Amino acid sequence: MSEKPVSFRTPPWLARTGGRDWRCASAPADVRGFHAALPGYAPTPLTELPELAVESGVGRVFVKDESCRLGLPAFKALGASWAVHRTLTEWTARGDGAGPVTLVTATDGNHGRAVARMAHLLGQHAHVFVPRGVHPRAVAAIAAEHAEVTEVPGPYDEAVRRAAEAAASPGAVLVQDTAWPGYERIPGWIVEGYSTLCAEIDEQLAAEGITDGPDLVAVPVGVGSLAQAVVTHYRSHPAGHAPALLSVEPAAAACVLESLTLGAPVSVTTGETSMAGLNCGTPSSIAWPYLRDGLDAAVAVDDADSARAAARLAVLGVSSGPCGAAALAGLRATLTGAGADQRRTALGLGPSSVVVLLSTEGAAANPYSSATGH
Ligand SMILES: Cc1ncc(COP(=O)(O)O)c(C=O)c1O
To answer: Which residues form the Tryptophan synthase beta chain-like PALP domain (predicted)?
Structure first.
């Protein structure tokens, strides 16, 4: 009698030592105040989900719920608002032109919509380049922010190249959320903008009686700018408790996992994924040193993992799109299946550990949510 094969599903995973001991400079202190003064600003919820703690064998699990951030259904407005503010301040100071500026960017959805929203609010123009694979409703949502939209029949990296070319015209400036050699300042401002999210988590955990921070933070990763902000935040405390930091990518676009494995930043050929915001083939050049030195582990998940995680979060009352739910999918992939004990140990997790999952978008941000039934 033939035996039924047993599948020990092992996720694509990499752990490294030393991340928790690495230190870097902190983000500027004035970002939080800038955001707090924006109309409609409020900290997004940090929701405790005890059911997930039981399922994961840890003490407490919190979800940072970015389903409504400055009126948009993803965290991206934090970076876009600060970077556009800094860019326009500099533009005006230089006397670079009397008329409106065209803010140019490439996006797989959320960033472009946030840039377009900021441009319109501030009386400027936006031109947004969208790669193939972005849901037509996400494209329409960007156009509805009064942006000119150009659809590029290629992957995200190609859309970034096209946006950079367009931004070379007079009166235009590129506001991109990824960096490459020679284009680093504005992406750096975007990363600074994301620091508000981490500052809020500190305050919210302290209000829950957790004063020395979480033990693990799981971050959905595309080019790694958000992860750079998270590493910067948790690795810039001079001493004391430092959490493990886990990056989570789609298996179809795991450029950070691949780069960490090879020890150098590399581009990967991306495939199709419902995690549209994470469908990026090249790590940001300014993020890379932070990811290389400050992350503890990287994992890749597939669309079905993320859809299951989104469904679980929905049942527990948190609206999470495929990218946002990747954080829970990554935690589950890490803590289950063959090798789970070693992965749990690598992250230093025990029964009293505090885990924070960054749910970076709500279901409304990504129409693929409805395509997968959530
Ligand atoms: C919802 C969502 N989560 C996470 C990310 C990943 O951010 P980064 O590209 O900075 O790694 C993105 C990027 O677009 C996103 O839209």
So the answer is: 39-335
**Which fold, 13-75+191-371?**
Rossmann fold (3.40.50)
pLDDT for position 129: 98
369 lines ligand 1 (CB under 6 A): no
Cβ–ligand 1 distance for 72 under 6 Å, the answer no
CATH 3.40.50.1100 fits 77-186, yes or no: yes
Residue extent(s) of CATH 3.40.50.1100 domains in the chain? 13-75+191-371, 77-186
- In the predicted structure, residue 239 carries a pLDDT above the cut 90: no
Average pLDDT of the residues in 228-242: 92
Q: Does 74 contact ligand 1 (Cβ within 6 A)? A: yes
**Tokens (6 digits) for 22:** 């690495």
Q: Is 235:242 a contact under the CB 8 Å cutoff?
A: yes
Ligand 1, atom nearest to 219 Cα: 4
Mean pLDDT of the 270-297 span? 96
